[in-house]
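Hi R.,

Here's the chain you asked about this morning:
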Amino acid sequence: MKKATIALLLICGAVFAQQKGSFTDTRDKKTYKTVKIGKQTWMAENLNYDAKGSKCYDNKPANCEKYGCLYDWETALKACPSGWHLPSMDEYQVLNNTVGRWDVVDKKLKSSSGWKDDDSGTDEFGFSALPGGYGNSDGHFQDVGYSGYWWSASEFTDCNSGGSCSAHIYYSSINAQYIFYVYDLLFSVRCVKD
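And the predicted structure, written out as tokens:
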């Protein structure tokens, strides 16, 4: 059963409806919070679906419960449940444009707790970005508490470098960044509704 609450946000003189809800992934029966920001509906927490090749930070299940699973890019492309998909960089940009000026985006999207040095955000949009860190294919993990990395479906095609763009929020930064990374790193997934 879906629950929803609606709040109104005043952004740059325009009023946006913010609708919070939830849905259940039929594959494993896990329930996720959702939030509608502008015209997009996002998961309000990281995906925690145990796909083949996914890992928990430091291989500890408790980290999956808190931060969701970490995925390589190929797995991330197929990890979202039916009716949802891995966002493109254009879709991340729509989110940023809705949230406001580039220099305050990450503060507004960060969760209100859980970041190192008390550098949490205002989470005024209900996106609740957490610093889940990342992993390498060699089993090394780092940056939990300091950074959040989320895959996009957009490939980086310059110079045939073999990688994808991702969204990145660092604990001490004031804006979300979009950076190219190689496919075999392990990042979080935040799905957007079809």
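The chain has one domain: 46-193.

Let me know if you need anything else.
M.
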